[in-house]
């Protein structure tokens, strides 16, 4: 099955007055490259979140954004009145002629005068967060599948185009050799005492050099293999990339041996479809 490396998924839920939302998006990459932005409250679970994303997304340049919003008013701030009074008394002992509000302004800036009291991350909240992460990945995977179907159709169409153009090479093969033989014979008429045996030996050698039978067989095999891998193997992007390189080698050899205008045109058309295949294959997971 073809899966696209690009994708997007979003999930959100509410847990005990906190709205948690997660966005995941990715572009193509040779490996798994994760950029994650996570609230300080969930920093202790960053490793576990990264593992979930790595195990399920496999490959791609991934951005993950986790946001938390308090829907209920909370009183997480503690004013340490006794400590502040102690600070004020000590400051007054040092400089007794100052106004009280100045002592207060200085005291509240001193260590532990005002502290926050965030509640600890409970196991229940972590389970809720992990569930939202997995839901976001589920939607991300659905996006990948949808994009993968489009990629599959485009790749299949280009593979068939190459196969069709390869079949159209066949009628020109004999014509190509015949035209070369005729051109050589016309040239030889301008010379005297030509060794015909040597001439036909050279023609046989030249014909062998122009033979493209092996290239056609190998190219046909590569096209079939590409289709098989595309239809039957998961996470096949890298493998399809290697096969497309082999397809390119055979098409290039066909072009170098063509020595015929119509075959060259067909080769150019095959190269055009191959470039599309290479570009699309880069986006296959």
Automatic annotation (TrEMBL):
This is YicC family protein. It comes from the Bacteria. Residues 175-284 form the Endoribonuclease YicC-like C-terminal domain. It holds the Pfam family YicC-like_N. PANTHER family: UPF0701 PROTEIN YICC (PTHR30636:SF3). Residues 2-152 form the Endoribonuclease YicC-like N-terminal domain. InterPro entries: YicC-like_C, YicC-like_N, YicC/YloC-like. It comes from Chryseobacterium tagetis.
């Amino acid at each position: 099955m073809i899966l696209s490396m690009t994708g997007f998924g979003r999930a959100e839920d509410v847990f005990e007055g906190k709205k948690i939302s997660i966005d995941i998006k990715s572009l193509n990459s040779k490996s798994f490259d994760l950029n994650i932005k996570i609230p300080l409250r969930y920093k202790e679970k960053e490793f576990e979140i990264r593992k979930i994303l790595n195990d399920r997304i496999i490959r791609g340049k991934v951005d993950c954004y986790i946001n938390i919003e308090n829907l209920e008013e909370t009183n997480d701030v503690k004013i340490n009145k006794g400590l502040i009074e102690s600070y004020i008394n000590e400051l007054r002992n040092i400089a007794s002629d100052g106004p009280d509000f100045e002592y207060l302004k200085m005291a509240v800036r001193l260590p532990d005068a005002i502290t926050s009291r965030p509640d600890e991350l409970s196991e229940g909240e972590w389970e809720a967060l992990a569930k939202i992460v997995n839901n976001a990945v589920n939607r991300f995977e659905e996006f990948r599948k949808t994009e993968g179907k489009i990629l599959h159709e485009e790749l299949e169409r280009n593979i068939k185009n190459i196969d069709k153009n390869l079949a159209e090479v066949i009628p020109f093969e004999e014509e190509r050799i015949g035209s070369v033989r005729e051109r050589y014979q016309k040239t030889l008429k301008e010379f005297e005492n030509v060794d015909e045996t040597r001439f036909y030996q050279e023609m046989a050698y030249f014909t062998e050099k122009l033979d493209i039978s092996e290239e056609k067989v190998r190219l046909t095999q590569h096209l079939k293999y590409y289709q098989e891998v595309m239809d039957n193997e998961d996470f096949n992007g890298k493998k399809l990339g290697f096969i497309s390189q082999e397809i390119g080698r055979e098409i290039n050899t066909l072009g170098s041996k063509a020595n015929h205008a119509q075959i060259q045109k067909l080769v150019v058309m095959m190269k055009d479809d191959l470039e599309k295949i290479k570009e699309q294959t880069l986006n296959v997971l």
